[in-house]
């Protein structure tokens, strides 16, 4: 059954009590919710906040209680939170809905999560997207009218959500295990308690070069086009081939001769929020790269996987941070990459670590496969329940 949001509960747009009135912000009586504490993915249970208003501000605020649903309506559209025990005020970037007896609160939250793409699509401002209270109230969703059935659906989706969260924790724990083993074997560059040789990245690479500075022209013809990678394709410390863009053959002919990526080359993001993230090219794929990526070709004295781990190490990232260029979008120059210091353990010790990392990676791949399968089931059921 299709119903509008205003039929499923009271909708309230938040506000901010005056910052000029010190008494409104003088004590931590009521949590004050802003979009920054609501994560982009999933349904966030709101328990606490990073800002509070005092009891004096109650009459100047919009305050809701347990099971109220928050949904961001300005800027980042469709982030969803659900109130836990207690009272919560919220700012003007958030709409709240207090569900009525037609809908189970968590069921409505899952429904809104499913419909997030539709909410994003109707945001009516090209620069700062916004959904006003009237638009949100008239937003229509499909609901199951039987409350008991709604509760059954929530129970299934909650169980899958818990499994997804557990899989994510397993993957994070495996990542942390690799980092811990790295420190255990090699220590830190700052202390260098093992007395390893300290070199620069330039010392251990035969080639350090970035991709084309020419704005690419893309093609939808994947059969005749060539893969074109940018920084977004190495964000996970490996090359992600799932959303690769393609360039026409004539442009590839101009670009490929200048760099020719090879197996075991390092691809490193040069700019954006993920600058400094590196991945190993473990394929013989023919592709081209954009200026947002730097290509590093390791010499024989350093293992490519070890070099990738060193580059992704927090100590290396701090060196990048101190040398970053540009106002606005961070931009790491090749010269800064070249002179970045790293330690160079004996190759046998490097390979011992790489063997450990590869074993952990196998476990991580298995956990990731299980996670992907669970997400696929979750998405399929969301479509079945709310589509």
TrEMBL record:
Residues 3-171, 195-366 form the Type I restriction modification DNA specificity domain. Transmembrane segments: none annotated. The keyword Transcription regulation does not apply. Keywords: DNA-binding, Endonuclease, Hydrolase, Nuclease, Restriction system. SUPFAM superfamilies: DNA methylase specificity domain. It holds the Pfam family Methylase_S. One of its GO terms (molecular function) is endonuclease activity. Signal peptide: none annotated. Coiled coil: none annotated. CDD domains: RMtype1_S_Ppo21ORF8840P_TRD1-CR1_like. Belongs to the type-I restriction system S methylase family. This is Restriction endonuclease subunit S. It comes from Ruminococcus hominis.
């Amino acid at each position: 059954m299709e119903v509008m949001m205003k039929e499923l509960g009271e909708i309230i747009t938040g506000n901010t009590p005056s910052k000029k009135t010190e008494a409104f912000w003088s004590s931590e009586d009521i949590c004050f919710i802003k979009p920054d504490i609501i994560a982009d993915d999933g349904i966030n249970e709101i328990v606490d906040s990073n800002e509070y208003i005092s009891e004096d501000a109650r009459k100047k605020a919009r305050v809701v209680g347990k099971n109220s649903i928050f949904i961001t309506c300005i800027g980042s559209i469709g982030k969803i939170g659900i109130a836990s025990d207690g009272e919560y005020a919220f700012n003007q970037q958030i709409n709240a809905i207090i569900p009525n007896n037609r809908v189970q609160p968590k069921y409505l939250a899952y429904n809104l999560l499913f419909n997030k793409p539709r909410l994003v699509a109707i945001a009516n401002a090209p620069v700062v997207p916004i959904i006003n209270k009237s638009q949100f109230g008239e937003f229509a969703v499909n609901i199951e009218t039987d409350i008991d059935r709604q509760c059954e659906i929530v129970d299934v989706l909650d169980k899958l959500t818990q499994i997804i969260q557990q899989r994510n924790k397993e993957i994070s724990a495996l990542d942390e295990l690799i980092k811990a083993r790295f420190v255990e074997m090699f220590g830190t560059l700052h202390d260098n308690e093992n007395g390893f040789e300290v070199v620069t990245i330039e010392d251990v690479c035969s080639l350090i070069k970035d991709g084309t500075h020419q704005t690419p022209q893309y093609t939808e013809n994947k059969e005749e086009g060539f893969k074109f990678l940018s920084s977004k394709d190495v964000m996970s410390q490996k090359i992600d081939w799932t959303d690769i863009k393609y360039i026409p053959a004539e442009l590839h002919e101009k670009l490929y001769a200048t760099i020719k990526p090879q197996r075991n080359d390092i691809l490193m993001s040069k700019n954006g929020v993920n600058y400094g993230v590196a991945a190993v090219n473990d394929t013989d794929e023919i592709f081209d790269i954009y200026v947002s990526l730097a290509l590093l070709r390791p010499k024989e004295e350093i293992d490519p996987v070890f070099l990738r781990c060193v580059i992704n190490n927090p100590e290396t990232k701090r060196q990048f941070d101190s040398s970053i260029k540009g106002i606005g979008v961070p931009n790491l120059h090749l010269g800064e990459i070249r002179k970045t210091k790293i330690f160079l353990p004996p190759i046998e010790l490097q390979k011992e670590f790489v063997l450990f990392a590869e074993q952990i990676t196998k476990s991580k791949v298995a956990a990731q496969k299980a996670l992907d399968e669970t997400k696929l089931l979750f998405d399929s059921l969301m479509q079945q329940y709310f589509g």
